[in-house]
């Protein structure tokens, strides 16, 4: 995977390093040359540039980039401007950092694909979430083992936990499932309802859009998601 991370502060730099360590190609961008120098040996590529300048950004390999993460935290104005600029360039997937509720609303209005809150979520957690397709969220137990929320692969919809043989075939334990449904209010507005189903049972039926909460080694989780 190829990533562009704008802003090499604590969160951005940590995320860029972890993604690089996992074998991804990462371009880390910052306006501070000192930061660029500090991380040039730890991130695939580092560039000192202004990510709010349209001409400069147009020179980046945007068409070949899988994901752009705007990690600027100290300057909300620069964060919004950079986010809007990359959105205008129609990058494949755009994630931006939100500092406060109003800032988050502005980012949603721009049309980002996802919001990150570094004060609440670690770079390690996001690195795993970005690297493993299908991971909704994760909790690191150690360097080798995790509890993760994963989207149910479509081919398993309509089958029971026992029928997909997740323990026998992938050596993973399903702890619980989470279902998503829509509910209309009395004024006609629709909202999403998320429900944790309790301790998983082998005969539980799995439905489209269900989320599995599984425990196991990171290698086995990767194998399951690739299948």
From TrEMBL:
Q: Which InterPro entries match?
A: NAD(P)-bd_dom_sf, RCK_C, RCK_C_sf, RCK_N, Trk_Ktr_HKT_K-transport
Q: Which is one GO molecular function term here? A: monoatomic cation transmembrane transporter activity
Give any single GO term for biological process: potassium ion transport
Gene3D superfamilies from the xrefs?
NAD(P)-binding Rossmann-like Domain (3.40.50.720), Regulator of K+ conductance, C-terminal domain (3.30.70.1450)
Q: Domain RCK N-terminal: where?
A: 1-116
Please report a single Pfam family linked to this protein. Answer: TrkA_C
Parts of the chain that traverse the membrane:
none
Record-given protein name: Potassium transporter
């Amino acid at each position: 995977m190829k990533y562009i991370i704008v802003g090499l502060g604590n969160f951005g730099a940590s995320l860029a390093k972890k993604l690089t360590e996992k074998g991804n190609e990462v371009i880390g961008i910052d306006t501070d040359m000192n930061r660029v120098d500090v991380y040039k040996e730890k991130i695939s590529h580092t560039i000192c540039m202004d990510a709010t300048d349209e001409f400069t950004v147009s020179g980046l390999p945007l068409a070949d980039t899988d994901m752009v993460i705007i990690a600027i935290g100290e300057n909300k104005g620069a964060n919004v401007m950079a986010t809007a600029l990359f959105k205008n360039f129609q990058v494949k997937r755009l994630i931006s950092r939100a500092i406060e509720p109003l800032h988050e609303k502005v980012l949603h209005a721009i049309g980002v694909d996802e919001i990150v809150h570094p004060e609440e979520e670690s770079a390690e957690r996001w690195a795993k979430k970005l690297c493993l397709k299908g991971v909704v969220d994760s909790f690191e137990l150690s360097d080798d083992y995790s509890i993760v929320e994963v989207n149910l692969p479509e081919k398993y919809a309509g089958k029971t936990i026992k029928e997909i043989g997740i323990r026998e075939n992938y050596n993973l334990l399903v702890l619980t499932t989470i279902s998503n449904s829509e509910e209309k209010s009395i004024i006609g507005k629709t909202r999403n309802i998320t429900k944790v189903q309790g301790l998983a049972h082998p005969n539980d039926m799995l439905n489209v859009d269900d989320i599995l909460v599984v425990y196991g080694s990171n290698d086995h989780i990767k194998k399951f998601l690739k299948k």
